[in-house]
Every structure is written in C-alpha cells, then in structure tokens.
Specification:
Length: 308
C-alpha cells in the first residue's frame, strides 16, 4: 500500500512510498483511509523522533474494509472515524475497535478526519473542568485546531468564554463567531475564571493559573512553547480565594470509552453543529506544503490531507 513515510533526507521529513499492509489483531478492524488531518505535535515531534520509514498519523477517517475478527466494532462498509498512535498517513490502517466512531452516511470524511485528536481532546478537557453551564472559562491558544473545537463545545455547554490568542486583531471576528465572548492577547487580561483549557504551556500556563478562582481547574493540554512552567513563590498557596484549585493533565489514548465520544462528535460535525475549521485541504502528495504552514504558524485551524 502507499503511505507517507518518515524520510528526513527530504525537506519535509516525509515521502510518499510503499509500506506493508497492516495485519489487524483480533480486536482491530482494517480501515480504508479516505482522509487524515495533521496535528502540530505529530508533525513537529513525530517526524523529528520517529525511525526512518515509520508511518505516522493519529487521525483518519475512512470505511471499514475488514471488520474485527472478534466480532467487535462496525461492519464492513461502515464509514468511520479512527484514532491511534500511528498509521493514519496511509491507504489502510488497523485500529482497535474501542477507538473507532461511526460516521453518518454521506458525511464529508475530510471534515470528519479533523475530530479525533482536536475534538476529542477538547471534549475530554471540558469534562475535566466539570459542569460549565454559567461558568467562566479561559481558553488559551484558541486559534489552533483543538482551541477552536474547545470554544464551540464550551459554547454548547453554556459557558462564558474568554479566548486568548497572540493576535486578537486578526482572529477576534472568527473566534467571536465560534462562540467566544471576549478575545484577549494574554491570560492576565481574562479576569478571574472558573476553568482554563491551556493549549500553550510555559509562561502562559503560569499566568492562566493565576486567574483561577476558588475550586477552579486548569487543564494542561498543549505545550507549543516548549518552555518549562516556573511558578513564583506563593502561586500554590491555598489561602482565601485560592482554595482547592487544580491542575489536571491527561493522555487521550489513556482515556476509556472514546468510541462514543468520536461517534457523537462526528454526528455534530455532519449536522453542522460543529465547524471543523479547515483552513488547508489538499491531496496527500501536497503534505510538505501543509506541514510548512503548520510549523510556520501561518495555518490556524485544521489541515486535511485527502488520500488519493
């Protein structure tokens, strides 16, 4: 089968080539991939660190080619959304059935492919914050794929949303359209909030933590700054107004029962309730172009590769 292979002799670190067809385990289905979406982490870190010839790719949408031998999961011919640690940048991938969501018929599989990491991460992060109806939320790095899903899902949950982005003048209109009530350039401008979804890490996470109200939760999701978090003395005091504040982390593939989440998110995107915010789409032979834009921070939202 054809696949995008790690090849650091090329400028992008990838090349289209031939890879062995995956052999599914009994609890895995073989999926014929129609589209995949790119995530900053896999493009930045994955290509740098994976062995030569590796097939990367966390997100993929397609059709069940061969159902799981143990009888779990969808039947052959079912359109699906899939999540795995690798293998999405190929014509076929083998996926655990508990990481497969069912997609409504006739849905755009390119749009659906944006969901697994960005959409499911945003959804599970909001679960970590707790009930959000009427609560004040700060979402940092809100212009990225996960941030844009988080804004929309928080709006659906009834939160009052402050979105933080490095360039409010350029992105305020689009973030307001997604559901943000305020758009600021720094977490320090948000006021006191009940919860934070942080996509950035480093000094921004520290500043966002300082905005947490009593019983508030900060969920650390992204680490795009590649900087450490250095809290000043007193930041962790639990005195009046700062009692019971929490910093939470999680690993998406370590979460249980993701298949229903993926199915629900696919239904919402197919129905138009969630906008996947695709800002780049093209054939997978144009992957280097998309990767350059993603790494150069000129691409806000999601990049989708159609698998020819």
């Amino acid at each position: 089968m054809r696949a995008l292979l790690v090849d650091r002799s090329t400028p992008s670190g990838l090349r289209l080539g031939e890879a062995p067809m995956p052999e599914p385990a009994p609890n895995q289905a073989l999926v014929r991939v129609a589209a995949t979406s790119l995530n900053y982490g896999e493009v930045k870190v994955g290509i740098e660190q994976a062995p030569e010839g590796t097939v990367l790719g966390w997100d993929a949408a397609g059709v069940i080619e061969r159902p799981a031998a143990d009888g779990s999961g969808p039947a052959a011919g079912t359109p699906v959304i899939t999540l795995a640690a690798d293998g999405g940048w190929a014509e076929y991938r083998a996926v655990d059935t508990d990481l497969i969501g069912i997609v409504p018929p006739e849905a755009d599989l390119g749009a659906i492919s944006t969901i697994p990491v960005a959409g499911a991460t945003a959804l599970r992060a909001l679960h970590r914050v707790g009930p959000i109806l009427g609560k004040k939320l700060l979402i940092t790095g809100a212009t990225g794929g996960t941030g844009r899903y988080a804004v929309q899902l928080a709006k659906m949950g009834g939160a009052h949303i402050t979105a933080s982005t490095g360039n409010p003048a350029a992105h305020a209109e689009s973030l307001h359209a997604l559901g943000a009530h305020r758009v600021v350039s720094e977490p320090s401008e948000s006021g006191i909030v009940d919860g934070v979804l942080d996509m950035v890490g480093g000094p921004q996470l520290v500043a966002a933590h300082d905005r947490l109200a009593e019983n508030g939760t900060l969920v650390a999701i992204g680490h795009s700054t590649a900087e450490g978090e250095h809290f000043p003395h007193g930041a962790m005091y639990g005195n009046e107004g700062r009692h019971n504040r929490t910093i939470a982390t999680f690993f998406l593939l370590g979460c249980q029962n993701l298949a229903p989440d993926l199915t629900w998110l696919a239904e919402r995107v197919a129905a138009g309730d969630l906008d996947p915010q695709i800002s780049w789409r093209g054939s997978w032979d144009r992957a280097p172009e998309a990767i350059e834009s993603l790494l150069g921070r000129t691409l806000h939202g999601k990049a989708v590769l159609d698998i020819a």
